[in-house]
Write a structure and sequence with these properties.
14% of the residues lie in helices and 23% in strands. 37% of the residues are buried. Strands 1-2-4-6-8-10-12-14-16-18-20-22-24-26 form a 14-stranded mixed β-sheet, with no helix packed on it. Strands 3-5-7-9-11-13-15-17-19 form a nine-stranded parallel β-sheet. Strands 21-23-25-27 form a four-stranded parallel β-sheet. It has a domain of 144 residues: Ribonuclease Inhibitor (Leucine-rich repeat, LRR (right-handed beta-alpha superhelix), Alpha-Beta Horseshoe). By secondary structure, it is of the alpha/beta class. The radius of gyration is 31 Å and the shape is elongated. It has six helices and 27 strands. It binds 2-acetamido-2-deoxy-beta-D-glucopyranose (4 copies). Keywords: Leucine-rich repeat, Membrane, Repeat, Signal, Transmembrane, Transmembrane helix. It comes from Escallonia rubra. Its main location: membrane. One of its GO terms (cellular component) is membrane.
């Protein structure tokens, strides 16, 4: 009897353990990942070239002998799941496979992950189209596919992504036009479509009242500026074929950074733009502007630090009033048609606070204000290719001046 006791006890314990396990299994089973979500994860992994899945990368940890949401953390790095309160299935909410160097395609099956809020495949080597099924992911708040080789146009029904806050498709090979329906994205704060092959006009995006950053630079967009979102802080439209006047920019009172460089804009760089209260970087270089309205600025509230207007058709005298912009550190007015003398007031700004001053490739005449020849003043820049008396001993004069024949008549003015 006494010898039997332990084994009976053991048997009882065993039975209890088994009973516990048996009661637990259905519970676990019911919190497992929804079957169709698992299918999608499989499809995602299968459309990546296995050679590009290194042993340290997230996709390598996707082991389908285990359940994705249950083994998340150990396996299935780069995903997050819902934790259901009831006994329903877990759903995938986040996929973040940023910067692992994956080569391959994005499977259309991704459209079945209907609880997905974040899809981040930035900085890989995905190629082929962005599947149109992406527009079924109506809970997405972030769609980040920047720095890949995605091609083709935007998914036709992308406007269905009503919750989207960040849409970054920069640095791909996307083409086609930018659809006006994007202005229905009422939660959008960042729209990055730069460095693609988008063409056509910029649609009216004024409805994007939460939009903070609009980067459409380095595409093939043409036409005039449309009405732009009122609350923009960063507007980057450089390296396109945009034309017309820019006076509508003056209404963007929260603007901090404005880059319209390398387009075909013309007319005036209005004083209302130069004095936008928050503006700190203004780059309108390489355009066809003919005037820049620099009004005297007595209020010290101007934030403007960087002013780059080089390579335009600005003419007349250099604006003396520029010295009233107390925060300026970088001034580039090179490659224009400025004539006359360098205002003596510019000398007082050298080194404090002007640290970069480019007046090169104009038709400036005469001698230099005395501070320019003071070697103790630390400044980077150039006075080359003007009609100045510019001593070779002065660093800023390196590069030489125009030939006398070019200087006759002060540059044709
Ligand atoms: C996605 O859903 C559709 C329709 O429900 C289904 O036919 C298809 O097989 C699903 N794809 C995957 C990979 O689960
Ligand atoms: C769990 O799901 C079953 C059906 O699948 C249902 O009958 C049961 O009420 C659910 N239990 C809870 C706690 O939600
Ligand atoms: C997604 O990608 C960006 C870079 O594009 C990265 O900075 C970010 O941390 C990633 N993850 C999430 C969840 O946004
Ligand atoms: C302004 O834009 C031009 C052309 O895109 C670029 O070369 C230049 O570096 C920019 N200027 C500043 C100060 O960033």
């Amino acid at each position: 009897m006494a010898r039997l006791m332990p084994s009976v006890l053991f048997m009882c314990l065993n039975t209890i353990t088994i009973a516990i396990i048996l009661t637990l299994i259905p519970l676990f089973a019911e919190s497992r990942t929804l079957g169709s979500d698992v299918q999608v994860l499989r499809a995602i992994k299968q459309s990546i070239d296995p050679v590009s899945i290194t042993s340290s990368s997230f996709l390598h940890s996707w082991n389908f002998n285990t359940d994705p949401c249950e083994s998340m953390g150990a396996n299935f790095l780069g995903i997050l799941c819902t934790i259901p309160q009831d006994n329903s299935s877990s759903r995938i909410t986040v996929i973040d496979l940023e910067g692992d160097g994956y080569e391959g395609f994005l499977t259309p099956a991704v459209g079945n992950l209907t609880e997905l809020t974040v899809l981040n495949l930035s900085n890989n080597k995905f190629r082929g189209p962005i599947p149109s099924s992406v527009s079924k992911l109506v809970k997405l708040t972030r769609l980040l596919l920047a720095d890949n080789f995605f091609s083709g146009s935007l998914p036709p029904r992308i406007y269905r992504l009503k919750k989207i806050g960040s849409l970054d498709l920069s640095r791909n090979r996307l083409s086609g036009s930018i659809p006006g329906e994007l202005s229905g994205f009422r939660s959008l704060t960042l729209l990055g479509l730069s460095n693609n092959e988008f063409s056509g006009r910029i649609p009216i995006l004024a409805g994007l009242w939460q939009l903070n950053t609009l980067d459409l630079s380095s595409n093939q967009l043409y036409g005039t500026l449309p009405q732009l979102p009122q609350n923009l802080r960063t507007l980057l439209l450089g390296h396109n074929l945009l034309s017309g006047h820019i006076s509508s920019i003056r209404r963007l009172e929260n603007l901090r950074t404005l880059d319209l460089s390398d387009n075909r804009f013309s007319g005036s760089i209005d004083h209302e733009i130069l004095t936008l209260p928050e503006l700190s970087r203004l780059n309108v270089s390489v355009n066809r502007f003919t005037t820049m309205e620099v009004i005297r600025f007595s209020d010290s509230a101007t934030q403007l630090q960087v002013l780059d207007v080089h390579a335009n058709r600005l003419h007349g005298r250099l604006p003396v009033t520029l010295v009233t912009y107390g925060s300026l550190t970088t001034v580039n007015v090179g490659s224009n048609l400025f004539s006359g003398r360098i205002p003596p007031e510019y000398g007082e700004r050298l080194g404090r606070p002007w640290r970069n001053l480019f007046l090169d490739h104009n038709f400036l005449v005469g001698g230099l204000p005395p501070q320019f020849t003071n070697s103790a003043v630390r400044i980077r820049g150039s006075l080359a290719h003007n009609c100045l008396s510019c001593p070779a001993s002065v660093q800023l004069c390196h590069g030489g001046q125009r030939a006398a024949a070019e200087c006759v008549g002060g540059g044709g003015k």
